[in-house]
Amino acid sequence: MIAGLAGLGWRVEHRALDASFPVPTQAALRQTEAVLASIPDAALAVVDGLAFGALPELAQAQGERLRLVALVHHPLAEETGLAPERAAALRQSETRALAQARLVLVTSGFTARLLAAYGVSAGRIRVVEPGTDPAPAALGSPDGQPRLLSVGALVPRKGHDVLLRALAEVADLPWGLDCVGATDRDPAWSGTLPRLRDDLGLRERVRFCGVLAPRALDRRYAQADLFVLASRFEGYGMVFAEALARGVPILAARSGAVPETVPPGAGALVRPDDPAALAAALRGLLTDAGRRRRLAAGSRAAGLRLPTWPQVAAAFAAACEEVRRG
Question: What are the strands of the beta sheet with 226-229, ordered from one edge?
């Protein structure tokens, strides 16, 4: 996005914040205060939602001086596994912070509607879906055995536990799964997944690959016959868009913005948090190559309609220009 804005003539400075957000340390808050204080008066400052929602006091202190824009992927309180009191505290914090934003950019219409509960009026929201790089159509497995691909950080929200339990129910069928994604976001949780895999007898069928370099990930997409991710919530789902761009059929949970990201004819959606429903859908897709081919064609057609990064940069710039002129 920074490169796209620069290509449109914008001067963009990236100011990195501490990695502890959205649960900032005191040192992170002091660093963020210094970063915001160093920005000139009346400058437009776009702050990622992972940090913005945790900064109500700083947003209030700087809201008059700076033109603050919040970029919200999904509300912090919607993260899976939060204790009720923690979710309530995050909801209150983000509501207070968003009240100081001149504009709120979101990645989906679903998230835009969700923010009504946070006191953000529709007039202060602009939807700018992420861009997707063009990619060649996937060729599928080179050896005839269906290859499944799942891409997403190993955190509770992504539902890898649901996926593993569903795969155990179709262990009589031929398939192999590569799980690609960061393991350091929630080490305690991610550490349970290989043990669950082994307990379910899937050690030889499921590989946890960690984070892959772009070319290595491209190879996984190119050889995938089915993309599967059982997310309990998504504010958009960029990995689904990446699968669509390559024409890989998708199996996912009907949660959050997923039904808006994955159109009918490009994949199959099942109830969230339901291993049995996911297993039934898996069995149907693994045993019906013709259906997979039809969904692959639908996925590819949908992928070709996705916005490119230059198009998204233009939409992002147009939204920011509203604030700059205001």
Answer: 206-210, 176-180, 147-151, 226-229, 250-253, 267-270
- Report CA-CA distances (Å) from 307 to 52, 71, 151, 156, 311: 26, 18, 21, 29, 6
| CB-CB contact of 219 with 243 (8 Å) | no
Name the residue among 212, 205, 207, 203 with its Cα closest to residue 181: 212
* Phi and psi torsions of 95, nearest 5°: -60, -45
Domains, the chain, ordered by start: 2-131+307-325 (3.40.50.2000), 147-304 (3.40.50.2000)
Which residues 6+ apart lie within 8 Å of 117 measured at CB?
none
Given a cut of 80, whether residue 134 has pLDDT beyond it is: yes
pTM given for the model: 0.93
Residue 58, exposed/middle/buried by CB under 10 A (0-12, 13-18, 19+)?
A: buried
